[in-house]
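**User:**
Everyone, produce one record:

**Assistant:**
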Amino acid sequence: MLNKEPLNNYILLVEDEESLARGLEYNLQEEGYRVCTLNDGKSAMKKIQEEEFDLVILDIMLPYFDGFQIAEKIREIYPQTPILFLTAKSTQKDRIQGLEIGADDYVTKPFNLEELLLRVKGMLKRKSWYKSTTLLNPVFRFGDNEIDFSTLKATNAKTTFQLTHREAMVLKFLVENEGEIVTRQNLLQHVWHTSTDIETRTIDNFIARLRKYFEPNPSKPVYITSVRSAGYIFKSNPES
């Protein structure tokens, strides 16, 4: 088992399969987390408007409101709360929908318990890193773009919009390493807190989305450029 979590983080677990919910609740508590366990979407919707959680674990198929609807409400109220989808639905469409809503991670049933606990620990570490790095200088500007990393609100030359937590974390890491090559492995280790190669295509998808948001011409990027067989470089002033 993992080491006890010293910060006693508060986790909301929403799972309607009772035996699975109780097993997860027990193991999360054994890791030192406080856990609130609910079994339907209606009670989850009510709870997230009453209390703030450090992390939310959501099944997708739930009574009353599904996990996607709950995640959307969480993002409205608490933009930076990490969300982990735990579900039997494993299609690419479900993954894309979850990422677009703002899910931070996605675990398919059946799953390895220790792997899930490692992901939870990694997500909480990322939240702590992100919070500390945005505390002093939350607003960043480049070109016609402005990002408030504390609220996840962004503006480009045309409109104002909301980033997902993971999109903001990827951009934040690129900004912190401006002018340096950031490899996919760097992003996996520091933003995803994993060393697996399975999610490298996911990283490319996140980069494509950031370009769509912030580049004048996403097909010819100037701020987030690719280095063949190496990774990406961010430059806030490409002409310098």
